[in-house]
Amino acid sequence: KGENVSTSEVARALLSCEDDDEARVMTEEDSSQYFVEAVVYGVEVPGHPGRAGMATVVLRKPNEDSSWQTSVWRSLQAELPRYAQPLFVRIASEIEKTGTQKYKKNKLQDESFLKCGSDSVYFRDDASEMFVPLDETTRHNVLSGKQRL
User: How do residues 132-142 score in pLDDT, each as one tens digit?
Assistant: First the structure.
């Protein structure tokens, strides 16, 4: 049985994820939060019932692409029940909006985790306790049902 998930609650949790490296020196204009924008939505995964959670985010510091993968996994484990945590995270340089500044979620849902162009997509790997790049092997395992969602 599926659970209802508040996408705005998940987006807030993502936006509050901070760098947990205590040794890092912060300046006043620096922020320890990883993401400046986040939109969360459900995507269909062939061969699986219901929808899987997916988030598209914009990194605060795009050149530090991989530093967030473990910290965000840990933060989401502490903040949200497992069923509410996104399975896929897409890193975008910007998130397209309408003329009234609403995110174009339908477009993102249609693109799913399969048609993201040059954007990087990550998969929540609970065994590794981090988000891992969605490579061809992982993608195949998800689509074939070998990877448990």
Answer: 999 999 999 88
